[in-house]
Amino acid sequence: MIFVTLMTVAFLGLFLSKWLFDDFFTPPAIYNFFWNVAIAFLTLNLVRYHPVGMEAWRAIGVSYASFMGGTALVGVYALQKPNWLTNHSRLAYLNRERFETALFAMFGIGVFGFVLQLYHLHQLFGLSTFFSDPQRARELHTNVRFLGFFNIINVANFVLSLMYLTIYRKPRRWLIAVLVWSLLTAFFTTDRTRLFYMAIWSFYVVVYSQRRVNISFRFAVASSSVVFGLLGMFVLIAKLYVKEAYDYNRQFLKYPELGPLNDIYIYLTGSFPVLQQFLTDKWDFTYGKHTFAPVVTFMELLIPYYEREVLVGKFYWVPIHLNVCTYLETFYKDWGFAGLVFGPLGCGLISMAVYMAMRQRRNLFTVYFAGLSSFCVTISVFINFYSQIATWFFIVVGYIVYRWCYSSEPDDAEHFRTGVFGPPRFKTNPPGSVDTA
């Protein structure tokens, strides 16, 4: 009964969002959906976790209310400004040739970064280890310090290339090679997070590029393809790098015969028992070193003897060995209970503000940024991506690309795919005018 109730609340939130904002995928709807779905599956008790106590439930309840409160502060104001939700898309204000040049240059940087990463791994343990002993390769894997950003730019390459394919008719064929290459680089990270990054962020970018998304057979097929594709890649990486938790935790599984599906269940629900253990542990507050990790990283370079905190979470036996306990870990380590209130409040406020900026002025950067922000909302049930330096790196990259590609005059509407602009585009409004409907 609890499972059905939570799943109902999850889907009702999407339809409420559609009714209020004419969009299923607003930040509060996404947050409500994934947190309720995760907790709903937790109630099925398919793994014999240690009990989730009042400390964790209180933290989840307070943070949920805070996040929703933050989104409401922006959302209520936005509803008083109907033109924010009806403004015409400005995705046409792009220089296509410059966009292609930017994508090609970023592809070259990504190739260079990946080669650097392979050289680093070869020096560390030898590339042959990936084939002879994948588990050891996973355990010894590290990223190149600082220069590793040249490698992770492949994530942005995937997103921007897919956005190009979504926007333009008759796209360049070499962009398919960029997508394939970017996807292949993710398999050498030995981590499933990068694949989630690419797939989920891209999904939101594709959705936000459309003027309107309605439930249809085509949309259902596309959404299902993303979900099953993610699950397939999740299982594949687990198999390749011997990360199948179910295989050596059978005594804690209610239905061991489900095999790899148990891994997906553990990944979805394991954060909550870990959160309980984390909140009852003893911590010295770090006063912003986790919340503002990107700033702290630069301070470490500039200030002698200044050290940042270890950002990898502590492992707990719950009884499975896990170390992720939702995005609340970051805020609680820095500020204690106050962090559980003001951290999610700030995340909700920022996420909704970015989303409404996209609705008010839908261009290359706002769509890209809103998709990234919605990815952070989605993944909040596992880990905090708001505070990761990679997130802010991607924002800077996206803005540079946008400024390089921006055109003061719109491109010909016939160059763009159906659905990117509504029927009135370029018909009821002259180029460069502002829609005040």
Give me the side-by-side strand order of the main sheet.
1-2
Elements, N to C (H/E): HHHHHHHHHHHHHHEEHHHH
Mean pLDDT across every amino acid position? 84
Determine the oligomeric state from the structure: single chain
Structural shape: globular
Radius of gyration: 22 Å
Largest sheet: 2 strands, antiparallel
Helix percent reads 55-70%
Structural class: mainly alpha
Number of spatially distinct domains: 1
Number of separate strands: 2
DSSP strand (E) fraction?
under 5%
How many DSSP H or I helices?
18
List segments where confidence is low: pLDDT < 50 over at least 5 consecutive residues: 423-437
- Distance between the terminal alpha carbons, to the nearest Å? 45 Å
Essential attributes:
about 425 residues; mainly alpha; two-stranded antiparallel sheet; 18 helices; 2 strands; about 65% helix; globular
